[in-house]
Amino acid sequence: MNGSKTHDDTEVRLFAFHHAGGSSSLYRAWPRFLPPGWDLRALDAPGHGSLMGQPPLDDLGHLVGHFLEAVRPGLDVPYAFFGHSMGAIVAFELTRRLIEEGLEPPVWLGVSSCRAPSEPSGVQRHAAGDEELRSHIAELGGSSEHLLGDPVLWRIFGPLIRTDLRLVETWRSDATGPLDVPLSVFGGRHDEFAPPDRLTPWADRTTAYLGTRLFDGGHFHFSAGPEPLLADVVRDVRTALGPAASAPAGPGEAARTPRTPVRRD
User: Fold this and answer.
1) Which of 136, 169, 210, 255 has its CA 20 to 30 A from that of 9?
2) Which value, to the nearest 10 degrees, does the dihedral of the CA atoms of residues 17, 19, 23, 29 take?
3) What is the pLDDT of residues 164-218, one digit of tens each?
4) β-sheet bridge partners, residue 33
């Protein structure tokens, strides 16, 4: 899943962050639908996917710090963030952290199926009983029936899902102003947990709002196939990159000039 492209053949590096209880496998199919020169880096939170042996983090600040160290080596080319559900919170807060530390922010931020920071969380499903929580996860989609129905697997993954949901449902952003980063919003028309009206206020969190794109489906609106979503992602990232990205690079020509992390002192 992690790319190995060199500077000269990388148009953009796309970091992708997964949902609560999920892993980088959410993005397994994406590379074949992205243009040449796109380097997808789908990352796992501790306790998830490739990092399943590590203890999960129950503090959002620590989780953002983990991802800051994970992305830091990859900031030498134009890069973008995409986050789905919990991953959208991570992507937003990580962008803020990079700016606070004086580092070059992503050229673009995409948030999917996640309430805007100004929207209240509502119900606290992480505190529900096992049966109610399993029912909620089943309604969301994105988790196998085998996991939800197997008592042994649930004893392993149930606490992890609760930890993630608590981060999502208790998130209160202290951001005081919009980000100077182009931002796009994605969601499902029939998502009962992050419905379209709760996505709209994301527009106030950026100085360069590129729009909200809604797709048929629920919380995992791209589960039937990511092609429509990725077409919008590619277009918006290239819009954010500017005219230099509107045409593919010629043979032997770098798509963009490589950069090194820049501090804003």
Assistant:
1) 210
2) -70
3) 988 988 898 887 789 999 999 999 999 988 999 999 999 999 999 999 999 999 9
4) none
Q: What's the CATH number where 195 sits?
A: 3.40.50.1820
Count how many domains the chain has.
Answer: 1
What does the DSSP 8-state code read for residue 105? Answer: P
Burial class of residue 178, CB neighbours in 10 A (0-12, 13-18, 19+): middle
Length of the chain: 265
Each residue's pLDDT tens digit, 52-110: 989 999 999 999 999 999 999 999 999 999 999 999 999 999 999 999 999 999 999 99
**pTM, 2 dp:** 0.85
Let me know if 154 is exposed, middle or buried by CB neighbors in 10 A (0-12, 13-18, 19+). middle
pLDDT band at 265 (very low <50, low <70, confident <90, very high): very low
Pairing of strands 38-43, 108-112: unpaired
Q: Check residue 148 and give its pLDDT.
A: 64
Range of the domain at 30: 7-122+172-245
Position 121 confidence tier, pLDDT thresholds 50, 70, 90 = confident
Rounded (10°) angle between helices 151-169 and 130-140: 80
- Using CA atoms, how far residue 149 sits from 26, 133, 159, in Å, is 21, 12, 15
Please name the helix (run of DSSP H) or strand (run of DSSP E) that holds residue 231, with its range, or none: helix 227-241
- The tokens describing 263, both together, are 């501090």
Is residue 47 domain-resident? Answer: yes
Spatial separation of the C-alpha atoms in residues 194 and 84, rounded to whole Å: 11
DSSP state of 189: T
